[in-house]
């Protein structure tokens, strides 16, 4: 009997040791909130649920299809209600360049997710940071989670994913390390956020601006009587203008991209007849 109790105690101690190892390890985490989902849930809006479900499925497919190529394969995804968490472990004693590579991959994946969400009429806000975390199939716990949640819940406000000061400090020499592809901007309130539209290739950006501009206009018409939603899209519109200016994209370039896209669709349609 005593031996059995001793084995149970030993097993418990081993589990506590595993837990300590989790908490003492470093992870990168993105805590994201799907804006407007609470109202959609309460009103049983199936179309919104369907869009979110498709978004989640597409994100997992990206991890599987491009995981090795874009270093997404170690990113873990967990969703609950209107929140989504991306987590990637930072191995002990990894080099500065390796840390930059992990941060770059996670930030790029988060930016892609934010753009995919926008393409479905879904706005995302959140926080991304590095810190101690316990993360497995049933348990999420740690300082990194609390910090990322606070960034999302208190400071993000608009459809932007904030970057923690710890990451900004870590990437102070970012230009020396091309492995880190993260691009950040500072907002008028001093917050640093992911420049998520920069995840798209330079050549496609004129078309991208036209596409996002159209989405914004449709949503502004749809939510014309909802001031809170309009404020979110007003921020997005300001960010889009800034993105256009900083990438030196003229209205003529946007017009040419629209015409090229229309011609492509016409050629495809003609070929199918």
- Strand order in the largest sheet: 2-3-1-4-7
Radius of gyration: 21 Å
How would you classify the quaternary structure?
A: single chain
Distance between the termini: 81 Å
CATH topology of the largest domain: Alpha-Beta Plaits
- By secondary-structure content and strand pairing, the structural class works out as alpha+beta
The CATH homologous superfamily of the largest domain is called: Nucleotide cyclase, GGDEF domain
**How many separate structural domains?**
2
Spell out the helices and strands N to C.
Answer: HEHHEEHEEEHEHEEHHH
Shape: globular
Q: Counting H and I runs of at least 4 residues, what is the number of helices?
A: 9
CATH architecture of the largest domain: 2-Layer Sandwich
- The number of strands is 9
Task: Report the average pLDDT across residues.
Answer: 83
Describe this structure in words.
This protein is α+β, with helices and mostly antiparallel strands and 273 residues long. The protein contains nine helices and nine strands. It has helices spanning 2-24, 37-42, 46-70, 96-119, 143-156, 165-170, 205-222, 227-246, 251-272, and strands spanning 26-34, 76-80, 83-90, 124-132, 134-135, 140-141, 161-163, 184-186, 192-194. A hairpin with a 4-residue loop joins strand 5 and strand 6. The N and C termini lie far apart (81 Å). 29% of the residues are buried. The mean pLDDT is 83.
